[in-house]
Design goal:
Oligomer: single chain
CATH topology of the largest domain: Rossmann fold
Keywords: DNA-binding, Phosphoprotein, Transcription, Transcription regulation
CATH superfamily of the largest domain: Response regulator
Pfam family, one: Response_reg
GO molecular function: DNA binding
Number of strands: 5
Organism: Nonomuraea wenchangensis
CATH architecture of the largest domain: 3-Layer(aba) Sandwich
Protein name: DNA-binding response regulator, NarL/FixJ family, contains REC and HTH domains
C-alpha cells in the first residue's frame, strides 16, 4: 500500500529536497505541494493525503493554523511538523493543534520513511529524547489535575512511562506485562482523558505534573 504525502513549505528548494527523498521510498508518494498555509488547506481538502509534512513558519496562515483547519476537515489525515527544533518555539503549539509528531529538516531517508509510515498507521511519532525536550520546554501552563483521577494506578504508571519516551515494548518489559496490555492501557487513558493521540497524552502528563523535568535529561 502506497502512503500519499502532501509537502508544505514556503521554500521551493526544501520541498524539492523532500520530494527527492520520498521518491526513493517505494511505499511513499508525493501527491501535492503547497507553499503556504492557505494552499495547504486547499490542497489537503482536494487531495485527501494520508500524511502532511507541514512547515510552521510561512507567510499568511502559519503551519499551526493550517494544521487545525486540515484536521478539523480531515480527521483521518496525519500531520508531521517540520522544524529546526532549537529555533522554533511554536512546536508545542503545533502538537497541541493535533499534529502527530515532528521531524527536523535535516532528516534522512530512513528516518523520514519510518516517520511517515508510523503516523500513517495511526501511531504518534515520539522520539524518546527530542519530544520530551519539546514538551518540557514549552509545557509551562499547568491545569487542574482532576482529569487524571479517572485513570487507574496502572494506567497512570503507563502514561508516565509513555511520557518519558519509552516504547510499548520497553514499557511492557519494565512492568512485566505484555505489549498488548500496554497498548490497551494507553488506549483507555486516551479515551478517559479525551486527548487525540499519544503525543497529546504526553503533553497532558507533563502539564499535570505526572512527569517532571530533570536537569539531566538531554
Amino acid at each position: 500500500m502506497t502512503i500519499s504525502v502532501l509537502l508544505v513549505d514556503d521554500q521551493a528548494l526544501l520541498r524539492a529536497g523532500f520530494r527527492a527523498l520520498l521518491s526513493r521510498a517505494k511505499t511513499l508518494a508525493v501527491v501535492g505541494e503547497a507553499a503556504s498555509g492557505e494552499e495547504a488547506v486547499s490542497q489537503a481538502v482536494q487531495l485527501r493525503p494520508d500524511v502532511v509534512l507541514m512547515d510552521i513558519r510561512m507567510p499568511g496562515m502559519n503551519g499551526i493554523d493550517a494544521t487545525r483547519h486540515i484536521l478539523r476537515r480531515l480527521p483521518a489525515t496525519k500531520v508531521i511538523i517540520l522544524t529546526t527544533f532549537d529555533t522554533d518555539e511554536n512546536v508545542f503549539d503545533a502538537l497541541r493543534a493535533g499534529a502527530s509528531g515532528f521531524l527536523t529538516k535535516e532528516v534522512d531517508l530512513a528516518e523520514l520513511r519510518r516517520a511517515v509510515e508510523v503516523v500513517a498507521a495511526g501511531e504518534a511519532l515520539l522520539s524518546p529524547s527530542v519530544t520530551r525536550r519539546v514538551v518540557e520546554r514549552f509545557a509551562h501552563r499547568p491545569r487542574p489535575a482532576a482529569s487524571l483521577h479517572a485513570l487507574t494506578t496502572r494506567e497512570s504508571e503507563v502514561v508516565r512511562l509513555v511520557a518519558t519516551g519509552l516504547s510499548n515494548d520497553e514499557i511492557a518489559a519494565a512492568l512485566v506485562i505484555s505489549p498488548l496490555t500496554v497498548k490497551t492501557h494507553i488506549t483507555r487513558a486516551i479515551t478517559k482523558l479525551g486527548v487525540r493521540d499519544r503525543v497529546q497524552l504526553v503533553i497532558l502528563a507533563y502539564e499535570h505534573g505526572l512527569v517532571s523535568s530533570s536537569p539531566t535529561d538531554t
